[in-house]
Amino acid sequence: MASMLLSRQLTCCLQQNSRLLVFGHRYISQAAAKIDVDFDYDGPLMKTEVPGPRSRELMKKLNGIQNAEAVHFFCNYEESRGNYLVDVDGNRMLDLYSQISSIPIGYSHPSLIKLLQQPQNLSAFINRPALGILPPENFTEKLKESLLSVAPKGLSQVVTMSCGSCSNENAFKAIFMWYRNKERGHNSVTKEELESCMINQPPGCPDYAMLSFMGGFHGRTLGCLATTHSKAIHKLDIPSLDWPIAPFPRLKYPLEDFVKENQQEEARCLEEVEDLIVKYRKKKKIVAGIIVEPIQSEGGDNHASDDFFRKLRDIARKHGCAFLVDEVQTGGGCTGKFWAHEHWGLDDPADVVTFSKKMMTGGFFHKEEFRPNAPYRIFNTWLGDPSKNLMLAEVIKVIKTEDLLNNATHAGKALLTGLLDLQARYPHLISRVRGRGTFCSFDTPNDATRNKLITIARNKGVVLGGCGDRSIRFRPTLIFKDHHAHLFLNIFSDILANFK
Amino acid sequence: MASMLLSRQLTCCLQQNSRLLVFGHRYISQAAAKIDVDFDYDGPLMKTEVPGPRSRELMKKLNGIQNAEAVHFFCNYEESRGNYLVDVDGNRMLDLYSQISSIPIGYSHPSLIKLLQQPQNLSAFINRPALGILPPENFTEKLKESLLSVAPKGLSQVVTMSCGSCSNENAFKAIFMWYRNKERGHNSVTKEELESCMINQPPGCPDYAMLSFMGGFHGRTLGCLATTHSKAIHKLDIPSLDWPIAPFPRLKYPLEDFVKENQQEEARCLEEVEDLIVKYRKKKKIVAGIIVEPIQSEGGDNHASDDFFRKLRDIARKHGCAFLVDEVQTGGGCTGKFWAHEHWGLDDPADVVTFSKKMMTGGFFHKEEFRPNAPYRIFNTWLGDPSKNLMLAEVIKVIKTEDLLNNATHAGKALLTGLLDLQARYPHLISRVRGRGTFCSFDTPNDATRNKLITIARNKGVVLGGCGDRSIRFRPTLIFKDHHAHLFLNIFSDILANFK
Fold it and tell me: Does Zinc appear among the keywords (chains A, B) (predicted)?
């Protein structure tokens, strides 16, 4: 099957225009690229429709104990390797979604297998401590080797958490505490504050808010959900908080062709941000912080210019609000920099940056002034998991050794160039192609077409993910190479050519 | 050192009254008991004050990157075994706190080491999937072997989460959805609901509430925190929700000696619960559910009678509220039953039961009627971690094979009997001794005395935990045996005798 795909690809390349011949040229470098990913498979291998009979049988069983309607198929992770996800029916698929963007260096990476086989590492997996009170000897060292070695500029402090939602929830709390201390101007707390907070009332529980953007996604716990505005299904029936919501720019792509229109759209949104801060303060609801994703992901891969974010940062500073950048989905290298917000070139760093997914552990970086002024204020039983820190240290070593940030830039360029070409050829199916590194996406005409394309691609051996109401997003691992991009583009080109 | 302790203990037993001779008798069975815990150490071994010089050095380093003031000491988990926690200065301590009650079967359990060494299990640790969309082949099977094999009666459904807070947050959401569907009476949603929920407003985000109890602890994310009322430091400066808070009974111990007074106190609290539900409904804030811990843990180990909880369950049903039992700290067997609420003998089971800590994964059980009516409503990227399910299946096998629930009852009785004896001998230091299984506690005269006792005990080789404003709580592992109870009691008896 793989060799069939290869010959089909070469034939395809030879038959097509000069732009695609560039693909052919790049494809020839596959052998060299593959040295870096020697545990990878050489192509998809499909045996059944997906989900296949075994997956369907297992879905039925799982559905007996929980709503399993979101399950795509069941996986054989033991057999999954590199960029390829193998399912329980023996189908092997090129995975461009990587578990909702959460697998950093591919499946079954030899470095991680080796790490797990070393006897001295066993303890980290079976003796999970309460990190806030009884950390293991190597805790600081592993944080330095992993998270702190890639800390965004100016953020010297880091706290680990178990997932993305907990990371944002605790980042909000750190911001609220910081804001209140700033308002107080001193460290002493009144009796009234201590008593009123116990019954959820001000002044102990002040009427503070986080400003968020329409289309943003920051998690699903109640605090996070008050800042999430991507899909109704996430929010319906759940009580929320009256926090301000600003419009996020709706830009035209490619960005370089619509500079003026996009600037106007961004200016409109920024003005609204300032208006909301003032309006909410007037009604005694203080905006303590602004939360934003560098690229709105769940909400439909909505980009904004670097200039927009620099101006947003300025607005936050001007109004005394903390500036929180949610890098849960964008962080970890897929945009070509370790953190997507590093593209912006901020003079004054973000105040707080949250992460999870590819970082294997949740958590957040922050400036020193956001440090809680007492123990147990940002705290829970586990505060993350040292076994994840251990794996992350290894993952970051691989990212550095194998120059995977540059790889993301390079492979992302191959992917984006190919998508632009497909857009030119199939404008009725593909529009608004956009991306940074491998963090690419495009729009389809509607939800039904999008879902149909994802299903067909899956049956041809490619796992894709949707986002927003009609977008397809690319979230490959960091070991996704140019040749994987070309492999995908050829398969997808065939799909588009035959799409009815 | 261990043999010194042993001989001191025997001498001590021989010198004391018949009640303590029972300890001596039980102690003789230590050899038999130790067969079950053959990877355990035979006693504490202290080399330095705790925290020792190495711990202090590491605390200073950690404090450079996060507030490390809550750290007790740094641990050598590789050397920690069974009930004994070893620190980085080579001190070996009998651990009666077990990482805030989160280590089920002791440190470095051979079954878990073996599990990690089996090549077929490696994948679960290094290939963490998005469980809601791409579960591993053995997902349902492992849930059946682990969580479902100990599911509370009547609760056929289970969802996994990454931590205790996420478990409660998502349980709240399941309850809110259930309540709203009940109100609707049908499955269709209005356009107004879909639109208003996107901007955090009713009717899409209805004004629903969870009723909680003063002194309760249910986590620290914003939704959970609105139901947490244990300590001001947890809540100060964080905006909250106007949700009803009922008084939790403040009982006299031993419960059997104060039946009438305690009944009156419980009746007062139950009446207040009903009043609050009615009062909040009048102001259009609907109490959709009631959340309660079987024993308020962080809040000071506050017990209530089985009758109180049966009546509370009845009130929930009468008013159409969901009844959510938070077993994050009480669950997993330490009270002598797998779930503490199984002691109550409810006719109608709880609607939702949350767990985490000793269960290694977070999550919640629920009745079928609380199943979300669509996919992606209770969802996040990871939805727990299959590596934790794998370990939990092994832990539950050990709990069953080694009859550890009965062990908790038995060892708990030895501990409680000893504490009652110490209370009789040192009433100025120990009061309100209480417990179920090994989930025991007592009060000290004040915060300062409590903290001093904990520090002295630690330097004598025993790790204890505090809770509430002046209580000491016992949270040993499930392999804590009678002889460990006697070992502790002897050490603590000496401490009390010499306390100034």
Answer: no
